[in-house]
């Protein structure tokens, strides 16, 4: 008998195959679970290549939230013998017991390789996390083809949640808190923001998506050293000032114009416009000494032709007849608004503008 790992586990059955669920101390995760990307071509691996750029953020998430971080279970295949000893011969106890795995067995991560790597990074900075646990689902390794199929099946139906619902449910991000509170307070937004979806259907009566307002408000208060309450007040004041320059927003609220018609014929409720207006506001806040000054500077926005039919939007906010939200198009939209407001462009904005005018954008 050699040395072995012993895990408290529960036995289950899926597709006629036994599997086991256990709780594993975090300190063991980097030691026993391997990732098979080194020097192997994709067809010989059972996972996608590790995206190391994701790891610092995942590790920081654990370290910054030691009292309320949460990770879902890892899924692993075990290339070696697994022996399950149940606590009793029947009933619930038959499913609970101890899983014994020889130390020479190979543990291959099928799902959760980024969580595993992030745990390893976090443990380097805070070894005390090692006594905490994470759920692990063990399957018997039935060969490369089966492991690859497990990865495909585990990820086949995975759907990233819409950005809007992520903002709605995120209570750590300051910008999410600001925009949610602002929507609750302000009559120009309350009842007109889609809080769950990041895209509006053609018949939706909503004027904005939460994600579009989030990015616009985030750009608005970015870099300002103010408390969340002050940021909320400032954002509400700014967007209500913007509302006074855009008659169509008010016409939707008074039911003179439908939200569908407004979104179809104008771009000022689209994400690119809100983001651009947020960047404009951020510049005004940094340069102005009082609300009366920056509000006065917004007055020329009343003369901007926000209609989609305006040919000046083509190539800036609209590409091939569709509103574009790319970083370059946001910058070109900002530039257009800065010119209307008599504001100078930053060096980067000037570079993008020059390229556009040369026909390179």
TrEMBL record:
Protein name (record): DNA sulfur modification protein DndB
List the InterPro entries.
DGQHR-contain_dom (IPR017601), DNA_S_mod_DndB (IPR017642)
What is this protein's gene name?
Answer: dndB
Pfam families given in the database record: DndB (PF14072)
């Amino acid at each position: 008998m050699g040395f072995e790992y012993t895990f408290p586990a529960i036995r289950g059955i899926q597709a006629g195959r036994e599997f086991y669920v256990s709780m594993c101390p975090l300190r063991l995760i980097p030691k026993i679970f391997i990732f098979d990307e080194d020097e192997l071509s994709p067809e010989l691996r059972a996972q996608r290549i590790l995206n190391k750029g994701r790891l610092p953020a995942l590790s920081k998430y654990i370290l910054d939230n030691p009292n309320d971080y949460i990770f879902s279970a890892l899924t692993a295949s075990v290339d070696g013998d697994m022996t399950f000893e149940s606590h009793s011969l029947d009933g619930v106890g038959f499913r609970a017991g101890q899983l014994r795995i020889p130390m020479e067995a190979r543990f291959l991560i099928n799902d959760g390789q980024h969580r595993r790597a992030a745990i390893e990074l976090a443990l380097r900075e805070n070894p005390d996390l090692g006594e905490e646990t994470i759920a692990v689902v063990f399957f018997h390794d039935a060969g490369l083809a089966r492991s690859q199929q497990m990865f495909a099946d585990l990820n086949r139906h995975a759907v990233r949640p819409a950005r809007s619902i992520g903002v709605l449910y995120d209570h750590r991000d300051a910008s999410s808190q600001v925009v949610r509170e602002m929507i609750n307070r302000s009559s120009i937004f309350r009842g007109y923001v889609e809080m769950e979806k990041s895209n509006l259907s053609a018949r939706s009566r909503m004027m904005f998506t939460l994600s579009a307002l989030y990015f616009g408000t985030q750009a608005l208060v970015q870099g300002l050293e103010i408390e969340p309450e002050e940021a909320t007040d400032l954002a509400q004041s700014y967007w209500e000032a913007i509302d006074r320059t855009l008659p169509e927003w008010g016409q939707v609220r008074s039911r003179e114009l439908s939200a569908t018609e407004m979104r179809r014929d104008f771009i000022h409720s689209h994400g690119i416009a809100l983001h651009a207006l947020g960047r404009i506001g951020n510049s005004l806040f940094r340069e102005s000494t009082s609300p009366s000054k920056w509000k006065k500077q917004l007055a020329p926005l009343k003369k901007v032709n926000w209609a989609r039919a305006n040919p000046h939007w083509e190539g800036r906010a609209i590409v091939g007849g569709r509103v574009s939200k790319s970083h370059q198009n946001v910058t070109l939209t900002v530039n257009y608004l800065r010119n209307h407001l008599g504001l100078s462009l930053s060096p980067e904005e000037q570079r993008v503008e020059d390229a556009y005018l040369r026909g390179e954008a």
